[in-house]
Specification:
Structural class: mainly alpha
Helix content: over 70%
Order of helices and strands: HHHHHHHHHHHHHHHHHHH
Distance between the termini: 26 Å
Largest sheet: none
């Protein structure tokens, strides 16, 4: 019974307290990870040059997608684990975790082999053209070596959070972030290794994260004490995990497709400088939304556990409070971005063209951020309770159904401005759709 009791607080403590307890560590972890990406970009822009920012931006879609396999397996399996803990089904939780490890290793190694084999074709396809190609290729190959370790770390981090141990998950996110910055300083600034230094710093940080997570699961801190028998693939678990994980994978695949389209469209419209602008804005999107994403991460195990325990009143309360907290945080982010875009951009580069054009674009990109909490919490809810199809469709509404068509159509009429105004339009439309389906589901299913 120790296994059940140690995670029972998810179904007993007040929702507000749980959200804070789960979300604050998740937010801090995401903050440090995002800050790492941000400072990494600042270091690269100032120590190597603005073209290096564009080069890294080109590589991100490929490494993100392969790393997202680990995240997808982690979140898909963690939804099962959370509900299994809520239902006191220890064996299913253990078997699920074992299957997560096996699948992550198999899939990511295959993807890395494919990625390295077709490097010369993939880099230009993702916008690595002209002066961007060579530095992008250097960064791409080295980072790809560490992606399986990153995928295992992403998977393990989600499982740790499903166990109800958000502080451990937070530390797991902080370690590679701090490690990357230290390695950046040594390899880029002191040893003058350029793009190779930036890439090895990222890969080294993945290894540090993995070692910490491995230590956690091998220690007595983890409830998931798996044996060799749990690594054998189970068809029923794989099917459920794949359906739920596909939501995350599809979202990340669309993100990668978005980067591909954006890099190519912006390169054709404004050359290397426009790709660099998107690199800066993209980093700010990752960084600025950290508290909203933290609330979303904190919400997932609470909703999943209580849904598994049939405590629907608590599930409803968790939805309402998660949206409220995330919405307030998004409003603060909106105010800061609208007020200080010039100061933000000047931290990354002193290039006059980028300094003059990026602030206006950034304001457009963040224009609808105050309402994004509904979209994020709404799609996360369906994933938390194991309803894969609506979770997938709602997750894809913003970028897949609205944003990608908009960036393919609007630039023909408005030029580069058409790219930037696509962001708030997609945010608004996807929020309306998600809000409708979330409200309908709550009224229909969460009845005690």
């Amino acid at each position: 019974m120790a296994f059940k009791n140690r995670s029972a607080s998810l179904g007993e403590e007040p929702i507000s307290k749980l959200l804070i307890k789960q979300s604050v560590p998740a937010s801090i972890g995401i903050l440090v990870m995002s800050l790492n990406i941000l400072v990494d970009t600042i270091f690269v822009g100032n120590w190597i040059g603005s073209i290096a920012i564009a080069a890294i931006n080109v590589v991100l879609p490929v490494s993100f997608f392969i790393a997202a396999l680990g995240m997808a397996i982690g979140i898909g399996g963690s939804s099962i684990i959370s509900r299994a803990l809520g239902a006191n089904d220890k064996e299913k939780a253990l078997k699920t975790f074992g299957n997560q490890i096996t699948v992550t290793i198999l899939v990511t190694v295959i993807m890395v082999i494919i990625g390295l084999t077709f490097a010369n074709e993939l880099i230009p396809a993702f916008g690595g053209k002209g002066d961007i190609f060579e530095p992008a290729k250097i960064y791409y190959k080295i980072v790809l070596y560490g992606v399986p370790v990153l995928a295992l770390s992403m998977m393990g981090n989600n499982v740790i959070r499903a166990e109800g141990k958000p502080k451990v998950a937070m530390i797991a996110m902080i370690i590679p972030s701090v490690g990357n910055l230290l390695l950046d300083y040594v390899l880029i600034n002191l040893l003058d290794m350029g793009m190779a230094g930036a890439a090895w710093a990222s890969t080294g940080s993945y290894v540090l994260c993995f070692l910490y997570i491995l230590w956690f699961f091998l220690s007595d801190q983890s409830e998931l004490r798996i044996s060799l028998s749990h690594f054998g693939l189970n068809t029923a678990i794989l099917k459920e995990m794949s359906a739920l994980g596909f939501v995350t994978l599809a979202r990340q695949a669309v993100v990668s497709l978005t980067y591909l389209l954006m890099n190519n469209i912006l390169f054709n419209l404004g050359g290397e400088s426009s790709v660099t602008m998107y690199g800066i804005i993209g980093r700010m999107l990752m960084f600025a939304l950290f508290p909203v994403l933290g609330v979303t991460q904190g919400f997932l195990p609470i909703a999943g556990y209580n849904y598994g325990a049939h405590k629907y009143t608590r599930v409803r309360e968790s939805i309402n409070k998660a949206i409220k907290y995330a919405g307030l945080l998004a409003l603060v982010i909106f105010a800061l971005i609208m007020t200080f875009p010039e100061a933000i951009v000047s931290v990354f580069t002193q290039d006059e063209v980028i300094l003059s054009e990026t602030p206006s674009a950034m304001r457009w990109v963040f224009a609808a951020i105050p309402i994004i909490a509904i979209q994020l919490i709404g799609s996360a809810y369906f994933q938390a309770i194991g309803k894969a199809t609506p979770a997938l469709l709602l997750t894809l509404t913003r970028q897949g159904f609205f944003f990608i068509p908009l960036i393919l159509i609007l630039p023909a009429y408005f030029g580069e401005l058409g790219v930037w105004i696509s962001f708030p339009i997609a945010d608004f439309l996807s929020t309306v759709v998600t809000g409708y389906f979330l409200n309908r589901e709550v009224r229909k299913s969460l009845i005690e």
